Amino acid sequence: MLTSRVPATMQAAVVREIDGPFEVLDRPIPAVAPGHVLVRIAASGVNPLDTKIRAGVAAHAQHPLPAVLGMDMAGVVVQVGEGATRFQVGDEVYGLVGGVGGLQGTLAEYAAVDADLLAHKPKSLSMRESAALPLVSITAWEGLIDRARAGTGHKVLVHGGAGGVGHVAIQIARASGADVYATAKPSQFDVVRSYGATPIDYAASTPADYVLEHTADEGFDVVYDTVGGATLDASFVSVRRYTGHVVSALGWGTHSLAPLSFRGATYSGVFTLMPMLSGKGRAHHGEILAQVAKLVDAGQLRPLMDTQRFTLGQAGDAHARVTGGQAFGRVVVDVA
């Protein structure tokens, strides 16, 4: 095992019970299994799903308590386990690595991580910015590229274009050569435009209105729903007949497929946590993040960052900023 100097203990923000407070405690440094690396975490991204796991309302993403929460991170490799040949001590990495299914989360100074889940972080971003990207980028990529094969000549509609997955989906679609449209509030139009999409006021226009205006009533080649519920139903009537494809990252409810079937179109769901929960397909997440880093360093993708900053001891405040709706952009906890 290749290693640099590592202490015996670390600080971690631990939650003991559902909706419980974060307690910063000393914990043993985790052991590094074959195929894994030990990462000194510099920053931990906070996702809405993290707050739902803490609140005990994410049945699809259970994490036994007491636990360290947090799924996204960026940091530096300090130990390399047997067989983890893609990384060496000192490498700066980022990834979606834990916080569900019993895997230690990222609100800690160190984490032992399956190397397949990691990629070298974008060179042009800080640790904080890099930690904002893994979950939302993988979710956007799996929907647009893996499922829908969005590309040149396609008209892509992203529902929730100013959100975490939405603003990244716009940029990935644009980098793939698509013409992109995005639903948003009028107050978010400038952000949507800055990422290269045409904004649509979802409250002031119906699907029939924007399908007619932007596609001459043909429908969008790809519709990516990042909102769920009624928005997924609206997606089914907004997609192009025969060749169109709807993707949803929140297709958890019960929906009628009749509108989609009558258009002869197709549908895919995205469940980003599957590789962490099942242990299968993890290498593809690392591959996606390597491609995302290339887009970032080529100037084709950048995260929308919330201006508020938090330390490990303020993890509860970071969660409150997400749940309270004050955040505009990605919330990140500075761990180092």
Automatic annotation (TrEMBL):
Residues 20-333 form the Enoyl reductase (ER) domain. Pfam families: ADH_N, ADH_zinc_N_2. The keyword RNA-binding applies. It is found in: Cytoplasm. Its main location: cytoplasm. Keywords: Cytoplasm, NADP, RNA-binding. This is Zinc-dependent alcohol dehydrogenase family protein. It comes from Variovorax ureilyticus. The lineage of its organism: Bacteria, Pseudomonadati, Pseudomonadota, Betaproteobacteria, Burkholderiales.
